[in-house]
Each structure stands twice: as C-alpha cells, then as structure tokens.
Design a protein that fits this description.
- By secondary structure, this protein is α+β, with helices and mostly antiparallel strands.
- It has 2 domains: 17-149, no CATH class; 156-205, no CATH class.
- The chain is built from 7 helices and 8 strands.
- The protein has helices spanning 17-37, 69-75, 80-95, 106-119, 121-127, 131-149, 197-205, and strands at residues 48-51, 54-59, 156-160, 164-166, 169-170, 174-177, 183-184, 191-192.
- A two-stranded antiparallel sheet has the order 1-2. It has a two-stranded antiparallel ribbon with strand order 3-6. It has a two-stranded antiparallel ribbon with strand order 4-5.
- Strand 4 and strand 5 (169-170) form a beta hairpin.
- Helix 1 packs across helix 6 (131-149).
- The longest helix has 21 residues, at 17-37.
Amino acid sequence: MHCLSCEQETNGEYLCEPCTGRLGQQLADLPALYGALGAYLRPSSQTTGSIGGVGTGSPAPDAPLPVHEGALDLVGPGGIVTALEEWRFELCQAAEIRWPAPFGDYPGRLRRAVQGLQDMLWYIHRDWPQAGDFSAAVRQMHGAARSIVAPRERPLRAGTCTKEISEGEACGAVLLAKPGRPVVCRWCLTEYPASSWLDLAAEKAA
C-alpha cells in the first residue's frame, strides 16, 4: 500500500509517518494563521489632513485600501473554519463516534475543530480512506493562508558565476538572487553585492 499523500510505500497505512507529522503541524498552525489573516480584513483608515501642523478636519486624499479578498474567503463563511468542521464531521461518521455540534465564535470553533482532528490523527493515518483528500485540503488551506501573511520571495536567475577557479575557466554555476540581498554562489561561495546581479545577467547575455 502507498501513502495517499506522497505515494511512498507504507505498511498498510493510508498516510506515511512523515506526511502524518506534516499534517499535524499544518493543523496546529491554522489557528495562528487564521488570527493573522484578520489584519487583512480591515481597510486602511483615512487620516485627517493638516496644514502647518494644524488639523483641517478633512480626510486625506488617499482612499482606504480594500480588504484582501483572499483573506476574506479564508476567514469568512465557507472558509477554513467551515471546511475543517465538515472534514471533522466526515471523520466522526467514518469512525462512528459522536459529532459535537459547532458553537461559539469562529476562532473558538476553529480551535475545537483542529483539536478534534489532531486527536484523531492516529485514525486518519491508519484507518481513514479519505486521508489523502483531507491532507491535500489542509495543505491547500495552510498554503493559501501563508501566501497572504508570510509570502515567500522567489529567487531570480542572475546569470552564472564569473569567478575564475582555474586558468581561463570560470565557475559557471547558476546564481539565484533575491532583491536587495547579496548573491552567493552555491558552488564556490563567491559573494557578489546585491547591486551586481543585473550586471551578471547582462554579462551572460553578451
């Protein structure tokens, strides 16, 4: 039998040990990510303008920024909380255990859903045929939330390393750069200033 998440061979379990651990960590992260998404639901407030340090009482010309639609989709009805409660309901039915009805505010409902799902990780790992679909759904929610509250900088190809490592021969390793950071060759460890990667790319193109 193979893991329904990564297709690694298992001893009859629906999820392998690494994927089960990853799923548990992603579930544990969701309440904090959910809380952080709240900052993207409040439009920026207008400020009152002033002339010579004296307030005019008139709003500044900048309009408030709209809420982040992606955050709204994750936090609002049908988002993370609803999805996890539905998955918990499916899990309880499969395991033939009592389904506790949701109550309280959304953050509280999320914490209870996460705790209930974590308490059943052993069953998800070993006995639940829907483990693969559930793992994929949690991974998607976790990734969507992280992409808003902690977006990753994607490295840009900056050409190749021009460091001479032997007579007439350059290192030639591909260099990856992130804006504003020094470029370090992963092969020979030569470091280039942050401003030099455009020159490197132009040199390669020439």
